[in-house]
Each structure stands twice: as C-alpha cells, then as structure tokens.
Amino acid sequence: MLLHVIARGKIGRSSEAELVDRYARRISWPFRHTELPDSGGRIPAEMTPCRTVLLDERGDQLTSEQFAQCLGKWRDDGVREARFLIGAADGHDDEARAEADLLIAFGAMTWPHLMARAMLAEQLWRATSILAGHPYHRSG
Known about the structure:
It is a single chain. The longest helix has 19 residues, at about 115-130. Helix 1 (about 15-25) runs parallel beside helix 4 and helix 2 crosses helix 4 (about 115-130). It is built from 4 helices and 5 strands. The protein has helices at about 15-25, 65-75, 95-100, 115-130, and strands at about 1-10, 30-35, 50-60, 80-85, 100-105. Helix 1 links the parallel strand 1 (about 1-10) and strand 2 (about 30-35). The chain has one domain: SPOUT methyltransferase, trefoil knot domain (Alpha/beta knot), CATH 3.40.1280.10. It has about 140 residues and is α/β, with parallel strands linked by helices. About 35% of the residues lie in helices and about 25% in strands. It starts with a strand and ends in a 9-residue tail after the last helix.
C-alpha cells in the first residue's frame, strides 16, 4: 500500500525536511511526498481508490499501535493508497473533514506544518515497523 503525504507549502532545505527524508528512507512500504501551493482551494482527488486521512486538530489522538492497526487493516482489505493530507495554515474545511476516512491529531497543541510532516513520517515508519513485527518499546 502506498503511503502518500500531501502537504500545503514548501518544506525546502530545512531541518524538518531532513527528518522527513530520514524517516522516509526507513519506511519499508512505498512512500511518496507531494507538496502543493500554500493556497488554491481543495486538494485534488486522484482516481486511485484510497483512504484519506486528514491531520486536523479535531481528529482522534491514536496511539502508535492503534495507528499501525488501522494501516494494517486497510492494507489487508486491499486498499492501494493511504493519502495523508496536511492543510494550509487555516486547516481543512468542513466538507473535506466530512469526506475523510479518518481525522488524526498529534495532541491538543498546535504544531507547525513542517514539524507535522516530520512527525507524520516518523509515525508512518513506526507503524510499518510494528506491522513488520519489530519490537515496539511500549509493548509488552
């Protein structure tokens, strides 16, 4: 299953970009990172059947194991792509939230968009590692 992060704005050459790259290289599943302009309406839908996950302050706060279980279920159900959307500074509109398969939040605090990308890449690596049977430090 392709893990596809779609984010508004350019990450450029920053320490956050280095973190995203570091975790992207560790992810054993297909991974793609797409950047879109800061503004310009809704993120375009692609024709590939997928699950859409919005990073949103109103989302569920999942443990790493719960996140891994969700990805594993989608993979086992034959989902070809999981698309993770990080919006612009104003976040996502109500329509996008309603259409999403899952809303997730990295806690109640507000995080910079560049840091959210790095945190998401790390959690994708952690989830795929859990699903591959690697020991997880919180299990047991």
